[in-house]
Amino acid sequence: MNNRYCIIMAGGIGSRFWPLSKNNYPKQFLDILGTGKSFIRSTFERFLPVVPAENFLVVTNAAYKSLVLEHLPELNPEQVLCEPMRRNTAPCLAYANYRIESVCPDASIVVTPADHLVTNEVEFQRVIRLGMDFVEQPAHTDALLTIGIRPSRPETGYGYIQVTNAQSDICPVESFKEKPNLETAQAYLADGHYYWNSGIFIWSLPGIQQAYRSYLPDMVALFEKGRYLFNTPEEQDFINGMFPQCENISIDYGVMERSQSRYTIPADFGWSDIGTWGSLYEHVQHDDFGNALNGNIVVEDTRNTVVNIQEGYEAVVEGLDHYLVALRDKSLLVCRLDDEQNIKHWIERL
Amino acid sequence: MNNRYCIIMAGGIGSRFWPLSKNNYPKQFLDILGTGKSFIRSTFERFLPVVPAENFLVVTNAAYKSLVLEHLPELNPEQVLCEPMRRNTAPCLAYANYRIESVCPDASIVVTPADHLVTNEVEFQRVIRLGMDFVEQPAHTDALLTIGIRPSRPETGYGYIQVTNAQSDICPVESFKEKPNLETAQAYLADGHYYWNSGIFIWSLPGIQQAYRSYLPDMVALFEKGRYLFNTPEEQDFINGMFPQCENISIDYGVMERSQSRYTIPADFGWSDIGTWGSLYEHVQHDDFGNALNGNIVVEDTRNTVVNIQEGYEAVVEGLDHYLVALRDKSLLVCRLDDEQNIKHWIERL
């Protein structure tokens, strides 16, 4: 069991939940759903029955290191890997892989975003264990496994995984699909061979290292130069120096799309990436008029509206239908829920 | 000149500008119009060319004494009279009158609310001087003078003063009228003998004291018991003990409506009581889409909307027409401008 590692990717700066998430306090550190726990805390606890606390690594920006340790006090500071800059997921995971290799060359690894929602944790843990068992079999050392979520609607906000055979617990992957338009999403849903790409990966360390060598040899060459510096006081300086030279590429494009031995476990454990206020709205309690409210809020003649205010604040909201009212950290947003994708542009104008 | 006194009534707790005005920071201490000065400060400065600083009295609640002195550092603490409770304007002014009587029995007095707007201060001062000159004539010692504002629209939010002869500078008052409905207000406007009641009064101290004796003898009896305590260390204890026994009645009902020697000066000096967000909206700058914004605010597809946020905050507002968005002191209000009269009910529900 002690060979099982979990890499939590927590470098996001997500502006989509502005003003809740900001550069100095991104989404993974928020308790947007009001569960009493931040996303990163929930993620950690969700994996804890499968992976011992000392085998977690969190990869994040140096600016968030203390926040990570605040939310996950079980970790020691060495378990928080600091990227000097955002370089997408392939360099991020290469760094974590090399760190793990320095202490446990035959590790099996589960990789997860820090900021997703899972409602059925028991089923989740069953699926993760199933995947780790799979990649730990000598016959599947080279398997790169993803978790595919059984789609419940023609969602256009997620990427899809197409499988060749949807009957088995663990299916070979036919292809990865970008976020589709509605028509295509409807076809995927009807077809039955398509799953939402959860962004959760499971692999053996030898398997993923071999894949990097095959598909990202330039990146591997950069990391190999410091192979003996991982888990030493020189590691951070080495990373800071080489990271900017790494190709800015995702693990999906850089490795998964090129791999010949990729699999998916079709799963159904109440998953959402809670990527937008709209998806948040789906997952929180509503009053009789469809309003999702937190805290000391009076609504009048208001429907289908999210009001999310900072603790210690109070609000009166009247005469809104299908709006978002969010107040956090001295920033206020009032907008139509349907227009939230424009948040980025508006906050640039501030 | 040193016989001229000004009483500023500053006891209001005005909830109509919630969340800007609150019990602990009512409207008179706010700079809602963004002029750089609070209402009480502007009021003080507006009278200063007519009344010397040492002849001002501010009547307010004990809770606001330090706020008053903060806004009017020219006053010494004895010039701030503290009511132990709200008992409407007749007891408030009786208190101030007795205080003045203890130091200047032949004073002439102008009484003013603390939280109104005047845009033409030169004309204002001309009118106030005209009124004080009038009541200082021995023939008019008993005159109770009001300032009537020439109406520019059929306003239903103000009381009206009906005069018998609208031709002279100083007109005898026929009657005082409550806030009218729209039809009546339109008739007042067409008639030409009706003025808005500004709540500003001018009288000689002997004249107003005689009026109190005639129309509010019970209240006078209460004050007479402490006649020799005013301007002594015992004054506050005496007031605290007797004030609760005073009738809760306005100067308008208690004195003005019963008086036989009441006059009004029809005036036109850019006056508003700024009693509502709607009236505030009239008096502040608008952008090309009719929005009244303060501070770091981005608006998108938004019209005829007031956004008023606390200094140091920022806001994005999208998709509103004719709304009010106000954020102050950890309280947020989003409502239709037309519904603002309900603010009181909403905040009771908080």
Please, what is the oligomeric state? Answer: homodimer
Strand content of chain A: 25-35%
Shape of chain A: globular
Q: Which sequence of strands runs across the widest sheet of chain A?
A: 6-9-7-8-10
Strand count, sense and barrel status of the largest sheet of chain A are:
5 strands, mixed, barrel
Overall radius of gyration of chain A: 21 Å
Cα(first) to Cα(last) distance of chain A is 50 Å
The number of helical elements of chain A comes to 11
Summarize this structure as a short list of keywords or feature phrases.
homodimer; 350 residues; alpha/beta; 5-stranded mixed barrel; 4-stranded mixed sheet; 17 strands; globular
Structure description:
2 copies of one chain form a homodimer. The first copy, chain A, has 350 residues and is an alpha/beta fold. Helix content of chain A is 29%, strand content 25%. Chain A contains 11 helices and 17 strands. Chain A has helices at residues 39-47, 65-71, 89-103, 121-136, 182-191, 205-215, 217-224, 235-242, 251-254, 277-283, 343-349; strands at residues 4-9, 56-61, 80-83, 108-113, 117-118, 144-149, 160-163, 171-177, 194-204, 262-267, 271-272, 292-293, 296-300, 306-309, 314-318, 323-328, 331-336. Chain A has a 5-stranded mixed β-barrel. A 4-stranded mixed sheet of chain A has the order 12-14-16-17, with no helix packed on it. In chain A, strands 5-11 form a two-stranded antiparallel sheet. In chain A, helix 3 packs across helix 6 (205-215) and helix 6 (205-215) crosses helix 7 (217-224). The longest helix of chain A has 16 residues, at 121-136. The radius of gyration of chain A is 21 Å and the shape is globular. The first copy, chain A, starts with a strand and ends with a helix. The mean pLDDT of chain A is 93. Chain A binds chain B through residues 296, 298, 300, 309, 312-320, 323, 325, 327, 330-336, 339, 342-343, 346-347, 349-350, and chain B through 18, 296, 298, 300, 309, 312-320, 323, 325, 327, 330-336, 339, 342-343, 346-347, 349-350. Strand 17 of chain A pairs parallel with strand 15 of chain B.
